């Protein structure tokens, strides 16, 4: 067909279909203006030509609906009328990151749930229903993380809901995934059927299709681009010819085709061809609604394009669209399909048959725009006339598709019959067909014959007749009840269940299958589960597991699985009947279906409790499960991996699975083409590695890390989540695996997953990054370079508390001891949302936010200030009163870091009431809380007299003293340190600590096996003894001197330093203690410490010797005899000013009125370094005075006047005499020079 003839067909189609004019239908002009605005404001965003969600007859009351729809309401059984209907709050849904399943919806904040009988027209006029095509089929068995809605669909859903709120003021949405039970034990189909009433009564309905990418190869994009140009040309030409309608239709179609090309996707054609969505649309019968009220123009044209493209592969793809387009416009579609098929086959558009194909596509698009705009209602209606056509033609023509053939019946059955039948049985299906055929009228036999063929039911079978002629009459009767579905999950009674249980003992496999299958159906109801067990159903079902018929085995497994669901008594009964060993035995079946069901049943049992996990292991279930991992059947692989994953909750099973060789095949399954297999293999590996060092190594050695990293890029969120989870388990406390994950390129995809729309994926990715960053400086840097910090900060604002917690945890790990990341997190805006999280209602979130603040503030002055300015201190102080010890501990730690070396923050924490609360936490039963509370008090008290006093006034001293007796060394250490700080510079606190009994336990801690405890105890005793006579005496009386002397021989420099320091304070101006220390043998080890490589030790040892020598001739002699003078002289040349000063002071004490020591100092070469100290320009007054005093002592002794001792320093003495700024030094130099040197 040439261009001119195509044009004629197009014009004829538009004429026959009464194309709208702007005068007759102002909607066209409005749509054109809206699309122009959308393209200009937000290209490539929301779908063009949004649905006009006003409804054909706004707020239509129930009483004004067609009779066939009112009948749905009137015929609803009382039990269902009284059952709750759930409506989602649109405001809540708009905050979600993905569609939530029924079971995880928060009823209090996210939904309205009321009995259907209590709903009225006023409520329904505030409701929009969603009719949508699931992107994925619901699996036959439960799979964690399954979600039928794609990310694109969910974004479109949220945009449409916002549009509905803005344009119509609706408040609630009904959508099956969130409003219908999804667990496999609930009868969700009842609510699905009842929902037809909801679709009928709701104010609005919106259609949500799937989305398909345009073909990557071939001519489709070229044809659409050419058609877009044709539409542009026509729009301009029509405008010039003053044909406004033609111009606007072409312009609108041009814009939509442009959007499809820009986004490289179309809406999927499948929606209108599905029988379930047909049933939902039929509920809108009686309203003057058209396509423009239900879906966007972009979605509609996309569906037409997709049907056109898919028709090249499947001729049935376009049937429904030909019907919807109307006879003449359908001719336009036919005109496109033939040439398009040739173009697709050739991969180009140059063939003669493809000439003017773009014109034909343009014609079709314009006609489709007209159909979308048409207010004419669609033909489907729940009437007897429609049913006649449906059963006679449409259900068998391929026009409507379904997940299963039986859905062709069940989707529309409840429009005509309010009767419950067994939808899982062939007998129930037959009965439903018979009911529909009789309702439709006409040739019932023709209907049934055609539908039997379509549904693949053998026509010779009759639902009322049993084929087992030899069976007893009673037996036949009850078997017939089973087969026809009269015994179902709703209407079964005790007597019926008892008879069904009796059928399990039949000698005929067919009867056993029917009975087991019916019991499986019944067992989806709590009451029936109990009734079947009471009727003795469990032992014969377990017995059937040993049947030689694989069908019997499968249905028996299914029945037992349902019986065990949510019923502890049945689980015990199954185990006692030997169910687990028999299920294990079935793993060796030659039938893959039996293997899969058995492995799935064991997976469920293993998930329930440790007893079952033990029973499976004891029945030698692990080796055959491992063997099934090598099956060629993906269903078997999946269930085997699932069972092994659930068994890993027991440590012994982790070991057994590894020993059975389970790790290599699980690693191999990571490369499966089946996402379910990948997910469960990763799950199993994560569980195997959890808290098992050997398995972490084995998985890495089996090559598990690279494929797990690869799976992070999967398109399946469940796979992504479990791969990340497995990497978490592998990396924990394993430096080699941490490095391997980074080397395998794991960091960039983990960072990418932070932007996932799935909260479970976000959570695991953040957790993995936290682990990868911990204890690994290179990974901290790599995560930051990969852009990980901004998305982690963004996740702090997630609506999911688990995501918030893991994001905060990861930021803590990145900031820990990493200056650059501390800065980067602050610059990325991380501090304000972390402050906000401190007020979370979730303890885990609070704890991790506080923990992150600790790392951000630690040794980072700018962050300390920023965190305080962001208002963090009051909520952190408030968290100290949390009922959760982890929160208390982390809040205290954060306050430690904020107060460290920050005067303003110490004041602010005290003003926020932090001190009394911290004191209160000292009495916590949790040692971690005790320790961090004591640490925080240390930081607050340091160099802050007001806080020192406040701690005492708050009663902090007694509990700190009490903590010295803790069995935890960390608590002992921090309590001792706190007492040291509290006692320093505060006489009253020194007294209070002693009165509270603090000295004896501190003395006791000197004998601790922990060096840190020894050091802090000695430090505290020094602080208590400093300038406090009573405490000096009390410490000595408590036996403190011998252990302090003993600590001088410690191998730890810190212990040595603090012990020497304490002995100095004890000996200072205390004759008795001077004597006691010397008698305890303190002088030799102190002299020995003068040769330490640690300047702090040298200085405190010299100080202690100063105090011991002061006015004590015996100690003067003892220090000299112990060889103290040469190392003290040597220390005068130390690079440490404090050491020089204390050495000089010690030499002063030794030389005072002691000629022998004077001579020894002189002979040891003490004169030159002392003179040098006097001359040094950087010598402070205290050191100069100490050196001068030492020189003065030397100058006073006759033994020091030997010229040879001074010969090398005469020039320096002359310089000091003339130019020293210190008069005492000038006089001393002059005195010495007056000698005959």
UniProtKB/TrEMBL annotation:
It comes from the Eukaryota. Gene3D superfamilies: Leucine-rich Repeat Variant. It is found in: Vacuole membrane. ARM repeats lie at residues 495-537, 536-578, 578-620, 620-662, 661-703, 703-745, 745-787, 787-829, 829-871, 871-913, 913-955, 955-997, 997-1039, 1039-1081, 1081-1123, 1123-1165, 1165-1195. InterPro entries: ARM-like, ARM-type_fold, ARM_ARMC5, ARM_PUB, Armadillo, HET, PBS_lyase_HEAT, Vac8. Residues 155-280 form the Heterokaryon incompatibility domain. One of its GO terms (biological process) is nucleus-vacuole junction assembly. GO terms for molecular function: protein-membrane adaptor activity. Residues 508-732 form the ARMC5-like ARM-repeats domain. It is a lipid-anchor. Residues 1-25 are annotated as: Disordered. Residues 889-1134 form the U-box domain. One of its GO terms (cellular component) is vacuolar membrane. Belongs to the beta-catenin family. This is Vacuolar protein 8. It comes from Pleodorina starrii. The gene is PLEST011342.
């Amino acid at each position: 067909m040439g261009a001119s003839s195509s044009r004629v067909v197009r014009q004829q189609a538009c004429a026959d279909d009464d194309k709208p004019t702007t005068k007759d239908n102002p909607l066209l002009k409005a749509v054109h203006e809206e699309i122009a605005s959308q393209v200009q404001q937000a290209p490539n965003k929301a779908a063009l030509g949004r649905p006009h969600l006003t409804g054909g007859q706004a707020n239509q009351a129930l009483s004004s609906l067609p009779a066939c729809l009112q009948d749905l309401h009137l015929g609803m059984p009382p039990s269902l009328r009284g059952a709750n209907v759930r409506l989602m709050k649109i405001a809540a849904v708009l905050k979600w990151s993905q569609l939530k399943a029924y079971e995880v919806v928060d009823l209090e904040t996210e939904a309205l749930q009321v009995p259907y009988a209590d709903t009225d027209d006023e409520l329904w006029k505030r409701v929009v229903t969603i009719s949508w095509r699931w992107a994925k089929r619901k699996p036959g068995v439960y799979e964690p993380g399954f979600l039928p809605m794609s990310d694109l669909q969910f974004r479109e859903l949220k945009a449409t809901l916002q549009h509905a709120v803005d344009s119509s003021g609706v408040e609630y949405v009904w959508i099956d995934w969130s409003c219908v039970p999804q667990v496999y034990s609930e009868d969700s189909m009842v609510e699905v059927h009842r929902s037809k009433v909801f679709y009928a009564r709701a104010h609005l309905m919106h259609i949500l299709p799937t989305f398909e990418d345009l073909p990557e190869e071939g001519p489709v994009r070229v044809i659409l681009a050419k058609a877009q140009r044709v539409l542009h040309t026509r729009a301009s030409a029509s405008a010039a010819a003053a044909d406004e309608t033609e111009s606007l239709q072409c312009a609108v179609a041009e814009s939509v085709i442009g959007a499809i090309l820009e986004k490289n996707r179309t809406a999927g054609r499948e929606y209108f061809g599905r029988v379930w969505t047909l049933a939902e649309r039929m509920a809108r019968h009686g309203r003057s609604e058209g396509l423009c009220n239900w879906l966007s123009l972009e979605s509609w044209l996309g569906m037409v394009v997709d049907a056109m493209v898919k028709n090249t592969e499947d001729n049935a793809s376009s049937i429904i669209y030909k019907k919807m387009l109307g006879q003449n416009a359908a001719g336009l579609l036919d005109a496109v399909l033939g040439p398009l098929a040739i173009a697709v086959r050739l991969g180009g558009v140059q063939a003669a048959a493809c000439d003017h194909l773009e014109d034909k596509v343009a014609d079709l698009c314009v006609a489709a725009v007209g159909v979308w705009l048409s207010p004419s209602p669609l033909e489907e209606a729940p009437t007897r006339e429609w049913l006649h056509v449906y059963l006679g033609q449409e259900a068998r023509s391929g026009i409507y598709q379904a997940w299963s053939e039986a859905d062709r019946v069940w989707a529309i059955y409840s429009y005509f019959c309010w009767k419950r039948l067994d939808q899982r049985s062939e007998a129930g299906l037959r009965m439903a067909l018979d009911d529909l055929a009789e309702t439709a009228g006409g040739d019932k036999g023709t209907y049934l014959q055609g539908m039997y063929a379509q549904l693949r039911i053998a026509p010779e079978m009759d639902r009322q007749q049993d084929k087992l002629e030899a069976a007893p009459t009673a037996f036949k009767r009850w078997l017939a009840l089973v087969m026809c579905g009269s015994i179902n999950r709703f209407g079964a009674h005790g007597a019926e269940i008892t008879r069904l249980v009796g059928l399990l003992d039949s000698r005929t496999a067919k009867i056993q299958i029917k009975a087991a299958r019916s019991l499986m159906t019944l067992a989806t109801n709590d009451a029936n589960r109990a009734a079947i067990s009471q009727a003795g159903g469990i032992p014969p079902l377990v017995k059937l597991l040993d049947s030689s018929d694989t069908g019997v085995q499968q249905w028996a497994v299914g029945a037992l699985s349902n019986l065990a669901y949510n019923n502890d008594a049945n689980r015990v009964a199954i185990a006692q009947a030997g169910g687990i060993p028999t299920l294990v035995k079935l793993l060796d079946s030659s039938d893959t279906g039996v293997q899969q069901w058995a492995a799935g049943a064991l997976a469920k049992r293993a998930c329930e409790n440790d007893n079952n996990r033990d029973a499976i292991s004891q029945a030698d279930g692990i080796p055959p499960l491992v063997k099934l991992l090598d099956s060629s059947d993906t269903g078997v692989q999946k269930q085997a991996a699932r069972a092994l994953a659930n068994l890993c909750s027991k440590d012994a099973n982790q070991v057994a699975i590894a020993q059975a060789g389970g790790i290599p095949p699980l690693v191999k399954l990571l490369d499966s083409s089946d996402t379910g297999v990948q997910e469960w293999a990763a799950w199993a590996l994560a569980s195997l590695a959890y808290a098992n060092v050997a398995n972490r190594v084995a998985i890495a050695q089996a090559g598990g890390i690279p494929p797990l990293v690869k799976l992070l890029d999967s398109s399946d969120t469940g796979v992504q989540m479990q791969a990340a989870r497995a990497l978490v388990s592998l990396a924990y406390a394993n430096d080699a695996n941490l490095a391997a994950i980074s080397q395998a390129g794991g960091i960039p995809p983990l960072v990418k997953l932070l932007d996932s729309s799935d909260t479970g994926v976000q959570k695991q990715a953040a957790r993995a990054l936290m682990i990868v960053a911990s204890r690994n400086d290179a990974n901290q840097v790599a995560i930051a370079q990969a852009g990980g910090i901004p998305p982690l900060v963004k996740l702090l604002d997630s609506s999911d508390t688990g995501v918030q917690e893991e994001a905060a945890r990861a930021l803590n790990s990145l900031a820990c001891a990493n200056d650059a990341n501390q800065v980067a997190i602050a610059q990325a805006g991380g501090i304000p949302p972390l402050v906000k999280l401190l007020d979370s209602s979730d303890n885990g979130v609070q704890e991790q936010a506080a923990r992150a603040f600790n790392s951000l503030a630690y040794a980072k002055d700018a962050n300390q200030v920023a965190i305080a300015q962001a208002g963090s201190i009051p909520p952190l102080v408030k968290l100290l009163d949390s009922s959760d010890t982890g929160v208390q501990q982390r809040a205290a730690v954060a306050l430690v870091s904020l107060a460290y070396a920050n005067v303003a923050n110490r004041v602010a924490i005290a003003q926020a009431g932090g001190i009394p609360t911290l004191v209160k936490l000292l009495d916590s039963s949790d040692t971690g809380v005790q320790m961090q509370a004591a640490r925080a008090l240390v930081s607050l008290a340091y160099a802050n007299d007001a806080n020192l006093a406040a701690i005492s006034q708050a009663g902090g001293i007694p509990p700190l003293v009490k903590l010295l007796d803790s069995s935890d060394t960390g608590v002992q250490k921090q309590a001792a340190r706190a007492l040291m700080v509290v006692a320093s510079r505060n006489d009253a606190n020194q007294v209070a600590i002693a009165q509270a009994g603090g000295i004896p336990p501190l003395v006791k801690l000197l004998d601790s096996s922990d060096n840190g405890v020894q050091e802090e105890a000695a430090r505290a005793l020094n602080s208590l003894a400093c300038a406090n006579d009573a405490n000096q005496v009390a410490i000595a009386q408590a036996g403190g001197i011998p252990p302090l002397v003993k600590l001088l021989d410690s191998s730890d420099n810190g212990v040595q330093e603090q012990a020497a320091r304490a002995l100095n304070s004890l000996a200072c101006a205390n004759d008795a203690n001077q004597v006691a220390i010397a008698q305890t043998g303190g002088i030799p080890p102190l002299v020995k410490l003068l040769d330490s490589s640690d300047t702090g030790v040298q200085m405190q040892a010299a100080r202690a010797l100063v105090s011991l020598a002061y006015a004590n001739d015996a100690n003067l002699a003892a220090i000299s005899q112990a060889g103290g003078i040469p190392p003290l002289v040597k220390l005068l040349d130390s690079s440490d000013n404090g050491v020089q000063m204390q050495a000089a002071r010690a030499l002063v004490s030794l030389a005072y009125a002691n000629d022998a020591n004077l001579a020894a100092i002189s002979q040891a070469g003490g004169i030159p370094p002392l003179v040098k100290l006097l001359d040094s320009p950087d010598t402070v007054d205290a050191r100069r005075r100490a050196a001068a005093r030492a020189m003065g002592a030397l100058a006073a002794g006759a033994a020091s006047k030997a010229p040879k001792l001074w010969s090398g320093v005469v020039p320096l003495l002359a310089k000091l005499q003339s130019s020293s700024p210190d008069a005492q030094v000038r006089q001393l130099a002059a005195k010495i020079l007056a000698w005959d040197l």
